[in-house]
Fold:
Amino acid sequence: MSGNPPVLYGPDNRPLRQTGAKPYGSYEVSRVAGGLRGTLSNWFVSRNTAYSARMERQVIADRAEDLAANDTHAASSIDSIAVNSVGTGLQPQSRPNAKVLGWNEVQSREFQTQAEWAWHIWQQESDAAGRLSFWQNCLVAIRTMLIKGEFFRIPLMINRPGRVFSLALQAVDPLRVYTPSDLTEKENIKDGVEFGEYGMPTGYWVADPDDAFINYDLASCDFTKVRAKAGHRPGAIHNFIAKTEEQVRGVSILAPAMKFFKDLNDYLEFEVVGAIIASSFPVFIETSDPYGTAEGMRSADPNAEKTRYHESVPGTVLYGNINEKPHVLKSDRPGNSFDAFVERILRAIGASIGMPYEVIAKDFSKTNYSSARAALLEAGRVFAMYQKWMVDGFCQPVWSMVLEEAWLRGMIVLPKGSPDWYDAVHAYTRATWIPPRKGNVDPLKEIKANILAIQHNISTLAGVTAEIGGGDYEANLQQRSCERKLERKLDIIPPAEVKKQSQKEPSDDSEK
Structure:
């Protein structure tokens, strides 16, 4: 077989010249981005090693935690995303695949009722520590992810008196997961995560020293290895938003603009200090007696002119001696561009985390209806992404485990002739997750638009109910049915019927 490259022919059946095979045959344009000219001459990108990447991630996590605790705008950014994405919880609505399972509508509704009641019981005892309900667990989880870049939950089976379910979730601080000092040379362990074939996680190394003191010199004897899978169930739930192909640990959302957060916080603090000093009305005393300050060269005459020192509190005026005149120390800060400068920095910070300025600063004073709605729609797309991420990576796997245990305990009874649970587990555990209520900028306009969308089959009652009220449309219809029955019993005419009756009655002019 010849080692020559294959010959390519053009439309005229003549061989094409292989310019790419010649070492000096390139005619590509030189790109400035790859050059070292001008302002790019000192731009050299550093790459992390496995060790430096771990240390960098830990420093970022520590700094992000400090910002979330002490920086107003960082705290606002974290809370805005967490509250609007999870808020009071993502609520499941059971949606079994009736076609796959061979069920009729009555059987499907019976299963939905059993599944949602089992979930209602479990979510109150979801926390292994017994402190948090499931929606609170979700809120803590997404806050931890935003601050530290990831979160860990370990599913446990706890047999404790008073519990209905054994399943519970144990929270683990991400800073406890790292590689033991005696296993750093193992190629299949990276930053506390042990990998198997194709890069699939098989275990997590969680520091658990006897003295509860975490340091990075601990050996594997001070760690607990948690399996990533326990049979068909997750042994550990590790969630982060991956932004590169081979990323193994998460990075804080505050990382790209962390320097802006810190510098802006320091700048505002210095401006406040300057304003406090200026508001104290400090006075500097100038004397026309140059020799009066040389106290050591004068006699200690009690009747002589004295140099007096006095510490003032805000709002006081100091009176000096003879030949002294006051000079008020003024501060010209903040400057005229203060508001515009701070707003520009906050817009840059918001762009880095996908949030509009109005959401971070909680400032809608410069917006009208259209611009406010545009800002909230932009933020809503980010919130929807986090909701989808939470559902797929955390809520849905937990829902499946809860329903499995409920079925094993007899709390869910399958109709006769149904497939075995493990043969159709995906059909049994299918669910729709309802996000927290978003609210409206102009309720009247938006509700009218939703009514038209339902009437013209553009949207559904279930979708609109979830978007506006964050509830269950079936429960709403049942409640409205009860309310209408009560209205008829009490002879209360609904406003809609009153309006119809008034339109049917002839006016006085028509009678004449």
